[in-house]
Amino acid sequence: MTQSHLANAANNPTTDGLPRVAYARGSYLFDVDGKRYLDGSGGPAVYCLGHAHPEVNEALRIQNEKVAHAYRYHFTSDASDQLQAIITERTGGHFRQMVFVSSGSEAVESCLKIALQYHAARGETARRRFISRRRSWHGNTLGALSVSDFKTRREAYEGSLLDVSFVSSANAYRPLEGVAPDQLAAHLAVELEAEILRVGPETVAAFIFEPVVGAAGGVVPAPQGYAKAVQAVCRRHGVLVIGDEVMCGSGRTGTWRALEQDGVVPDIMSVAKGLAGGYVPLGAALYADAIHDALVAAHGGVQTGHTFTGHTTACAAGVAVQTIIERDGLLDHVLKRGARLRDDLRAALSDMPEVGDIRGRGYFIGIEIVADPDTKRPFDPDLMVHAVIGRRALEKGLICYPCTGNVGGTAGDTIILAPPYNASEEELEESVATLAGAVRETVARARTT
Ligand SMILES: Cc1ncc(COP(=O)(O)O)c(C=O)c1O
């Protein structure tokens, strides 16, 4: 496996050197040579119930035997109605309206379009602009890419992307210069309001943010009070709030919505990865009743969706995954065990000053490596410390998710750990020990380079 594969897996168009998967069971994948890999990151935080869960596979088999896909304009289905009811219930009744899609990017794209349609429906047709944040990732379709600040993934498309405003990221480990960490949330709210006023509130459709940043930051939870403060600003100016929970949602942080822990309900939100746990591609854009009412009054309903919207077997997978998570009390487990998992990692790496920060919520954990813990200066990007850690971990049989770009878009080294919610104690311990070994060996070498 090459370093560039691990550096930027989502960007790399080649598959040269990758192991060839044969099968997977629970938290482990096996390649065709019989090598075993513990899935410590669920790809990018997808496989919340591990692989080949017998109950999920059985639900898929049953649905496929009945009907795999009935087109949404011809039929409703038990599977999509049940999943809708589950999502409404898991979101505390806040989201009864939704569009099912087949990926996180489509979910975000739908959220953006729902915001635009809402303003158009109310006659505010000048509200076309989105505001997003630095160091963010919202997806690969043109709209979702436009609101993403991920330099290497945008570069080839610059010039064709939407004109989007970007405000500062909310990173307590790397607060803005001259801003104390406890002042960060208030400072960023002021910055957002200033940008809304600068471009004209009447032109702004929505503010989109990841409640816990994923790949673009290496798991960065918003500081305390941030989500409430930015929501208040948006409310003052009629700007919708879109919470992108594609990676951090569906229970990954230990609550079904990540923003639940911030006491905030956005107007629109996206979910995907963990919704059907990777058994079938599935995402959704969820939106408030007030938005739905405006869309119905003006246009008869929401005007977005795809051929595979509400795909019957995908919805059946979502029902099975979410039913098992609830039945087995996995979110409470993720919340509590996640805090201990971060402590375990801290303990295992306590002798490594270069481990600058271990952060996250639930089973969504980021480890940031720095060259200098006092100044937080990252290692030379050419060393690709994150990628080397990823490669060493893989050699040792652990899949983690190495990321870069968290410092200035091109530098920084972070590793994401996002195990299945039902991983065993032994598997979690193995993840910690293997990852700590890979970090230790890589950083010891980087020190002397
Ligand atoms: C927060 C967030 N939004 C959107 C996306 C895009 O999802 P997908 O890759 O399924 O299109 C991702 C993918 O990593 C993500 O992390």
Supply the key terms:
alpha/beta, 14 helices, binds pyridoxal-5'-phosphate, Aspartate Aminotransferase, domain 2, Aspartate Aminotransferase, domain 1, disordered N terminus, 17 strands, 2 domains, 4-stranded mixed sheet
Which molecules are bound besides the chains? pyridoxal-5'-phosphate
Mean pLDDT reading: 95
Low-confidence stretches: 1-11
* Beta-strand content: 15-25%
The total tally of domains equals 2
CATH class of the largest domain: Alpha Beta
What fold name goes in the CATH topology slot of the largest domain? Aspartate Aminotransferase, domain 2
Category from helices, strands and their pairing: alpha/beta
Question: What's the helix and strand layout?
Answer:
Blueprint: H1 3-7, E1 21-25, E2 28-31, E3 36-39, H2 42-45, H3 54-66, H4 78-90, E4 97-101, H5 104-121, E5 129-133, H6 142-146, H7 151-154, E6 165-167, H8 184-199, E7 204-209, E8 212-213, E9 220-221, H9 226-236, E10 240-245, E11 268-271, E12 283-287, H10 289-299, H11 312-327, H12 330-348, E13 355-361, E14 364-369, H13 385-395, E15 398-399, E16 401-403, E17 413-417, H14 425-447
Pyridoxal-5'-phosphate binds next to helix 5.
